[in-house]
Amino acid sequence: MQSLAEFQSNMRAAIVNDDVSRLAPMLFGGNIPAIRFAIHQRHYQASLVRALTDKFPATVWLVGSEFVTEAAGLFVRQNPPITPCIAEYGHDFPNFLAGCSGAEHAPALQRLASLEWQVGRVAIAIEHTPVTMEAVASIHPKQLTDCTLRVQPGLGYLAAPWPVDDLLSLFLSETVPERYALRPEDVRLEIRGARGSFSITRLD
Fold first, then answer.
1. What is the pLDDT of residues 128-156, one digit of tens each?
2. pLDDT tens digits for 1-40?
3. Is 38 exposed, middle or buried (0-12, 13-18, 19+ CB in 10 A)?
4. Are 170 and 193 spatial neighbours (Cβ–Cβ below 8 Å)?
5. From edge to edge, which strands make up the β-sheet containing 155-160?
């Protein structure tokens, strides 16, 4: 009899790694239970691929759904989730995407995907009450060494050699210009957001 920990480990191996060998004796139903179990394997793969492509709509718009979907499938197989929150899944996808064959034809791809990830992250943040200068000034000097200041969770920064903020704005405007020339340009962006809204500002 398997322990709960063993069963969970074997279930994970069956779903994530397609290794049903240790779980097979516990499967029943139909002529070939493993085939019925494959439904859950496909659902796991498809749901994570969908979660990724939904987080990067501008990236899909730039290079096409086929390219991003295929890359997402590879990413899911090689990088299963390690946290229970699906909103946190996909942090490394922009870098992974840039390493896929064909990405060299879209040099702004990685930075645009990184900007999208930042936007998605800050837009769901909950802003904390900011600390005023008066509150900081009221802290006794001996206590300052024990204090830590943190930036708001809905704040991010991105440096890019391409105007990816313009690309994202073009996507969000849902307009199709007759011609658009993407030229190299060093940009430094501040991304702020909370509770469903966000803003992108270029910094000097």
1. 999 999 999 999 999 988 999 899 999 99
2. 678 887 788 777 777 877 777 777 677 666 666 777 778 8
3. middle
4. no
5. 155-160, 187-194, 197-202
Give the integer Cα–Cα distance in Å for 85 and 82.
9
Q: What is the pTM of this model?
A: 0.83
Beta partners for 201? 190
Q: Give per-residue burial for 7-17: e unless 16+ CB within 10 Å, then b.
A: eeebbeebbee
Q: Are 161 and 185 in contact (CB under 8 A)?
A: yes
State CA 97 to chain mean position distance.
11
Tokens 């779903």 -> residue: 15
* Angle (nearest 5°) at CA 82 between 77 and 83: 135
- The alpha carbon of 60 is separated from its chain's Cα centroid by a whole number of angstroms, namely 14
The whole-angstrom separation of Cα 78 and Cα 175 is: 36
